[in-house]
């Protein structure tokens, strides 16, 4: 996946957002009293057992989805990688003003991590070189799994539950799941009421290389595709032979010519950011293949709101669902 990318936030996260705004972690770990709790042992995606003295309150994170999980669970992270990028691509939660930038997601600053006296650092297996080994010399590390095209929603919840176990916020995680399930059920009903059940959606982002426009489909096996399926929408990408999602994140590849194979009734949805620019309204504005597509001529192209991290957690996916319902209503 390209690493530059991204109904209100679920109700149970409201208190978390309030804490985030003032940059406090005093209320983190709502299930247990960290000062008197027993040690916690978890097994991460590597199969490694990590034992902590109690629920982690001083937490760092290199991946944006995990940063989102933490804030939604009421735990304001001490350090996050590429804060500027996070605040561009994931506005579903708010980081505190005093959060320290850890460097890039693939290569966090070893010295910065060591200086923060963290209880734990959450990472994925995408760290470059021997960064993980160096970090583990000073800081406990829990590795969280990446995407899983076999079941993206289950993977999301497995990750949320792991983070909750480490931070003593399992009750908050249960609330997030309950609220999200209710959001999906409400959205499914709204889409049915709008007569859009089964509508074929082609969701994507796109890049202008200077020589050509490359389009990245979020197939039915992406997290976006899985969420859309839950609320009664179908993937238009499945109608095009040869477009298959990768086994991690369910992302495919095509070009403008490939879009001619989409059905006339396709709902074409996409996302970008102001900093990245809008390929569809800029680079393709005068592209005759694009402008002559039936769904373009019919005005069935929608840019989703900025700041929804399409690889994120329940907060981002709630905003995604809201946008989908708004678009078809």
TrEMBL record:
It comes from the Bacteria. Keywords: Signal, Transport. It is found in: Cell envelope. It holds the Pfam family Peripla_BP_2. The keyword Transport applies. CDD domains: FhuD. Residues 1-20 form the signal peptide. Its main location: other. PROSITE patterns: FE_B12_PBP (PS50983), PROKAR_LIPOPROTEIN (PS51257). InterPro entries: ABC_transptr_periplasmic_BD, Bact_iron-sidero_bind. Belongs to the bacterial solute-binding protein 8 family. This is Iron complex transport system substrate-binding protein. It comes from Mumia flava.
């Amino acid at each position: 996946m390209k690493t530059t990318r991204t109904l209100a936030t679920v109700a149970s996260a409201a208190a978390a957002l309030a804490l985030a705004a003032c940059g406090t972690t005093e209320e983190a770990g709502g299930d247990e009293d960290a000062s008197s709790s027993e040690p916690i042992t978890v097994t991460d995606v590597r199969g490694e057992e990590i034992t902590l003295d109690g629920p982690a309150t001083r937490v760092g994170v290199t991946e944006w989805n995990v940063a989102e999980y933490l804030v939604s669970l009421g735990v304001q992270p001490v350090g996050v990688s590429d804060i500027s990028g996070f605040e561009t691509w994931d506005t579903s939660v708010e980081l505190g003003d005093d959060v320290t930038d850890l460097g890039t997601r693939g290569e966090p600053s070893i010295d910065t991590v060591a200086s923060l006296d963290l209880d734990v650092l959450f990472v994925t297996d995408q760290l470059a070189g021997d960064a993980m080994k160096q970090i583990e010399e000073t800081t406990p590390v829990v590795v969280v799994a990446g995407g899983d095209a076999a079941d993206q929603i289950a993977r999301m919840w497995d990750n949320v539950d792991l983070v909750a176990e480490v931070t003593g916020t399992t009750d908050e995680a249960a609330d997030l799941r309950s609220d999200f399930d209710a959001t999906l059920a409400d959205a499914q009903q709204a889409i049915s009421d709008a007569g859009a059940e089964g509508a074929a959606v082609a969701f994507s982002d796109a890049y202008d290389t200077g020589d050509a426009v490359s389009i990245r489909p979020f197939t039915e096996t992406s997290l976006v595709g899985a969420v859309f399926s839950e609320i009664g929408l179908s993937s238009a990408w499945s109608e095009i032979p040869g477009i298959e999602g990768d086994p991690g994140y369910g992302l495919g590849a095509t070009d403008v010519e490939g879009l001619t194979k989409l059905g006339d009734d396709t709902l074409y949805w996409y996302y970008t950011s102001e900093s990245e620019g809008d390929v569809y309204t800029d680079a393709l504005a005068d592209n005759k293949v694009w402008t002559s597509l039936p769904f373009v001529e019919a005005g069935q192209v929608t840019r989703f709101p900025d700041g929804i991290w399409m690889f994120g957690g329940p907060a981002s996916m709630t905003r995604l669902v809201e946008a989908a319902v708004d678009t078809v209503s």
